[in-house]
Amino acid sequence: MTLSVPPGQAVDLRVQPVDEVLDRVERSLQVRLLPDTLVRKRRSVGAGTDRDTWVRIERRPLDKIPEQGWNGTESAARLAGIARPEWHGCVVWRDPVGPAMWRADETELLPGVPVGAAVLSAAPELPDEWWPALNTSLDTLAAQHTNRVATPDTVTITQALVTDTIRSVFTDDVDTTVERWVPAHADLNWANMTAPTFSLFDWEDWGNAPQGLDSAYLWASSLAVPTLADRVLHERRADFGSRDGKWMTLFVCAKILGPYARPGDPRLGPARRMAEQVMEELRTG
Fold first, then answer.
1. In the chain, fewer beta carbons within 10 Å around the N or the C end?
2. Strand ranges, E, within the chain
3. Distance (Å, rounded) from C-alpha 114 to C-alpha 110?
């Protein structure tokens, strides 16, 4: 159950054959994947099944699997009061050739369609009840308890990571110590939420993170649409008004403006202006 990948070449499930992987998942979960529903991304593949469920398959390198394990979707099943797909089961195996693990999680179908891409270029049409549902789920999540640590972008978030990321772009010598760590989804963007019925999915990386991480990620995902970014700031104003929320705003701004910044990215200007504003607030606050 391996991929035919030349040595040294990165695995990209959008282009590489995955038939053997899909066959193994079908046998292990005793389910048939529906070919016309197949969605292929760089490191994951998803498909509907003949029992009206969804299966998401991911390949993750061993060095990207933290000590806490690799069961975010499974462990999120115990979270109450959050709009998300119910988890049914999984299969996990070690890649027999490469230094990686495979995991397939089966969940109930989404109640709607993904709002859009990870970074939107146009404002989505959302019903009035969508925003209260988002706020309820995020606030309920932050009030719960876990020993997991969030792994945004598959990297475990730590105080050192926060400090190093911010100071790699913003050189002001200010105390970046995070005071409040709360459970977060850690990959909150418009591709991981549904509409018109709100639901939050893809829980692989959830865990404790600085207050405001989710809100900051959603704001960054909205920056190419100024009215949408402003709506996120308004809806999640309690996060953005906190000191930790300001650090998370700088954290995501540093990711946009840092060494991997893309020329022509419409988020560059808004991120730079927001970063200057937040730095001034931190200096004077």
1. C
2. 39-40, 44-48, 53-61, 87-94, 100-108, 113-114, 181-184, 194-195, 207-210
3. 9
Q: What pTM was estimated for this model as a whole?
A: 0.90
Are the C-beta atoms of 105 and 28 separated by less than 8 Å?
A: no
Strand 44-48 with 87-94, pairing: unpaired
pLDDT band at 174 (very low <50, low <70, confident <90, very high): confident
Integer-rounded Cα radius of gyration of the chain: 19
Tokens of 175: 């105390």
Alpha-carbon distance of 7 to 73, in angstroms, equals: 31
Distances in Å between the Cα of 164 and the Cα atoms of 186, 230, 240, 247 are 18, 28, 21, 12
Cβ partners under 8 Å of residue 28, min gap 6 = 91, 104
Domains of the chain, with CATH numbers?
19-108 (3.30.200), 113-284 (3.90.1200)
